[in-house]
Amino acid sequence: MTRTRTQVGIVGAGPAGLTLGHLLQLEGIDTVILEDRSRDHIEARIRAGVIEQAIVDLLVEAGAGERLQREGLVHHGIELQFAGERHRIPLSDLAGGRAIVIYGQTEIVKDLIRLRLEAGCPLHFDVEDVSVHGLDTERPLIRYRREGRDEELECEVIAGCDGYHGVCRPSIPAGVLFEFSREYPFGWLGILAEVAPSSDELVYAHHERGFALSSLRSPELSRLYVQCSPDEDLAEWPDERIWDELQTRLGLEGWTLAEGPILERGVTGMRSYVCEPMRYRRLFLAGDAAHIVPPTGAKGLNLALHDVRVLAEALADWSRSGSTAGLDAYSDTCLRRVWQAEHFSWWMTQMLHRPEDHDPFDVRLQLSQLRYVTSSDAAARSLAENYVGLEMV
Ligand code: FAD
Ligand code: PHB
Question: Given the CA of residue 296, which atom of ligand 2 is nearest to it?
């Protein structure tokens, strides 16, 4: 067994773990990042694509936003489609000039991995059997196997950035965490297609056959989703069926959706989940390890990066001054934003998805809500400021 030491042991090299490692490196704090998947795997995983202005600013200020600034597409509005019409929500006009940037999560991950490896900071892929120990002590440990050898990492603090299915949260003793969750009776079938996007802005469509979303990754790549069941079998969705469904749900008089080769496809179930607090002694949970939102509000990635910004500042303050005030406030500070995003994501989800039983009462309420949001300045402003990201700590 090889034993090494670090200040902050980070479990998981998703956006949360990699960004935390980068921010702490700027503060002169030693970290080791452990990831149980391969570099190829995490650099190919297609996930989120809408980045809030504040998160763009965070990455740029941290020196990790050079390609994001060059290749990211700034959007100032989104469209809501229902009852055969599209209505634009002018996000920037309604939310103090703030915008969103379209840039794939995968690209952020690639940028952060490259910077970390160039800086020579430890980032170990393909580690096996990761487990955390000694959470009741001042020196918690992470054990894992790397290249066939057992290793032990002694840490001052462990950051659990290992996503919803990770090992950190379940290692917290029973009875400590309160968990809140909701499963939705639907999922999203998502594709990445090699074709120029057919609309300039994202289109969120309410349709009697179910929700659909037209998004993009670049001027040459479209990202499209249709509502499906949470355990949908992809084998039942040949390309023609996917395009037919997208054409029907996003279809409008005088507009057609351009089709192209499908490069990637997958089904994502939808759930809301929060655990409180996001900390147990010297173990801090961040990102999907602590909370999940349904993707309708495009908040998952953004929340993960807000968490690690707060955590990095608190750890830097602790390291500099010995004060634990920031660490003690970490969970409460993050949870205020988390619950705001939970509410917004739940609200967008229930407004836009075909209810399970297609109850006509629910559908009338959805249409009424959509009409209100697209006709009242106050309601549109509320959607806009949540979508671009609320200004709170
Ligand atoms: P993750 O990205 O999950 O990263 C966790 C990392 O920890 C992973 O690399 C994982 O391999 C690693 N790990 C797990 N267990 C261990 C272990 N035991 N040891 C070591 N490493 C471990 N959000 C949106 O806003 N829009 C979307 O369209 C969207 N689509 C999504 C599609 C899918 C399939 C999923 C799962 C999520 C999606 N999300 C989306 C949510 C968004 O991608 C997440 O909120 C974001 O990835 C959170 O980042 P994270 O770093 O907290 O977690
Ligand atoms: C995406 O581009 O993948 C995307 C955009 C908006 C969402 C969810 C996903 O709400």
Answer: 10
Q: Which helix (H) or strand (E) holds 242?
A: helix 239-250
pLDDT in tens, 22-70: 999 999 999 999 999 999 999 999 999 999 999 999 999 999 999 999 9
- Nearest-CA residue for ligand 1 atom 47 is 301
User: Amino acid identity of 387?
Assistant: Y
d(CA 86, CA 44) in angstroms, rounded, equals 33
pLDDT for position 111 = 98
- Active-site residues, by number, are 75, 204, 295, 299, 387
**Cα 171 from Cα 24, distance rounded (Å):** 24
288 ligand 1 Cβ < 6 A = yes
Reported as a single tens digit per residue, the pLDDT across 107-154 is 999 999 999 999 999 999 999 999 999 999 999 999 999 999 999 999
For residue 245, the tally of other CB atoms under 10 A from its CB is 20
Q: How far is the CA of 295 from the centre of ligand 1 (A)?
A: 12
For ligand 1, whether the C-beta of 35 sits within 6 Å is yes
Q: Tell me the pLDDT band of 392, cut-offs 50, 70 and 90.
A: low
Contact by Cβ (8 Å): 227, 184:
no
How far CA 122 is from CA of 14, 126, 129, 133, in Å, comes to 15, 13, 18, 21
- CB 208 within 8 Å of CB 224: no
